[in-house]
Fold these 2 entries.
Entry 1:
Amino acid sequence: MSMINPKPETGSKVTFIQRIRSFWSGLIEPHGSIKLIGEYRRARLLAILTLILTVLFALGTLSNPVHIEAFYLLGGISFGSYILSRTRYYKLGAYVFTYVTTLIGFFRIYQGSASSLEASIASTVHISLIFSSLILSQRGFLSLAGLSTLAAFTAPFYTRSPIMEPGSTALTGGVVLGIGAILYGTQVFRAAIEKERLEELTQANAELEEVKSHLEQRIVLRTQELEKANQQVQERAARFQVASEISRDISANINQDPQDLLNRITQTISEKLGFYHVGIFLFDKNREYAVLRASNSAGGQRMLNRQHQLKIGGTGVVGYVSQSGRPRISLDTGSDAVYFNNPDLPETHSEIALPLKYGDRTIGVLDVQSTEASAFTEEDANFLSTLANQIAIIINTIMSNGADTGSFASPRVSVRNRQSAKQTGYSYLPDGTISTTKPLQNSSIDQAIATGDPVILARPTKEIPSSLTIPVKFREQVIGVIHVEAAEANRKWTDDEVSIIQSISDRASFAIENARLFEETERRAEREQLIAKVTSRIGESNNVEKILQTTIQELGRSLGATRTFIKLETTAASADDDATG
């Protein structure tokens, strides 16, 4: 015995039902031009009714040949109305079907072919009124009901059919009137409900449209905010990239002549940021004038050649900043009363000047000018302030090692300064300034140095804020720490933040070690050069006294000593002389 799998049969059955539904939908689907839902429903209902009646009349023709003419007539009317229901003229089909069917009932009464007046009206007019209430408009149905009622009441005047009982005509007309009134009331009630539903739907759609419009506005606004935020992030990232490139370029040329280094700084800022003039002013010894020391532009070079200087607190943006110690932006030089119209820089339309500050002490001014009006934003001011702080640190280092603001002799870091550097560090303050600082008396820093592990302060106090301390290690030896204090009281440090600072610490340790090796190599080269120079000068003479004098002079000059002497042991030489003598 073979088993029959029911699933294929189920699948075949579903497919067959779907085909039947698709075929039926194709038979009753209204014309594509009908868009309103009410008209679409009436056209579809007309197609269903007339198609069913057409089939029934066709079956009646086959089963009852006696009334074949009546079936032919009714079937033709139904089929014609069905054809019209599939076109854009479906309303004409509805009127043809209902009015002609009603007319046939009264025509049979007129001809006398009906068995009775009541039977003819009940078999045609009543059914026609029911159908017309479904597929005709209120006006069309009211017209048909009124004409049918009038024809029913006046039937005795034109009928040839027998009347079953005296007075039944009034009853028949009253029934037609009652059916028409009930159906019309039902139609009006349905229309009112449909109208209310339509109004509710319209109101709901309006509310949805309002919500949609509000959401779209919020989406547009949010998108604009995100685009603006992304643009700001990209601009900030670009600024950081430029700052990194400028810092690398300055660091790579830190051992240049100080004047060349300042010129390179102005040139690099101009090239990286696209400003046509960058100048560095430094205060003179008496802190009376801000003297232009470096510039990248042609006008700036002319100003350097004539030793351009501005009185501190005098006219111009630079004069204002030199006295106040605060940044100053001139977005429109034509309308800014503080701006000084410099004939060497005629293309300037906006200017920003930033103080070069080391700690709380202003040592100069960074002056940046653009050919565009309103070229500087708050972000530019913050970014350039950071650059100004870095430049101030470099200049202060140069000045601390023996160079004045006029000569800028090449910097030499003394042993004392190196020892001091070992005991100091740099702090980044919330206002964007960078300053040197003495070692902090902090248990987290001491613990990080002692253990070599990161220290996260999880329970801050009022005196000690939330902090993260990462040791800077090279070859497992702690050479420093990175200490970060949070602005928020209960800041929780994430693993990503710890990882980022740890990565920065690793890179900083390599950079510091490379710098140390470079300095050590440089010192060794200087030492070897010094030894070779002294040896060469000593070897130029064969006279002992001359050799000793040369040795003392070269050592004193090279080491900067105030007194140098050489002591020789002469006992052996005297004994030899005595023996010889």
Entry 2:
Amino acid sequence: MMRILPTAAIVAALVTAAPALAATSSQLKSGVERNLQRLSIDVDVDTLSTGQIAALHTILTGKRTQSDKRGLAKSVIGGTHSLRGILFDNR
């Protein structure tokens, strides 16, 4: 009986936090998309993983030069945007 209450409290906290996390994710995606457009990088952010979105946010809001941001962002995105993608035709 004593274990049921803490477990129920944790489950309730996770269920109520889910909508807040979804809204943050949407806001984060739109911010990353806007910053990528400023760097003239055309990519559909809906196809990126959560880890890629987080990494891009960190890179794009950091204190680096525009060319550094562009290079790092292309590396995170991968595919034909990166040297690896060009060399190995990773589309």
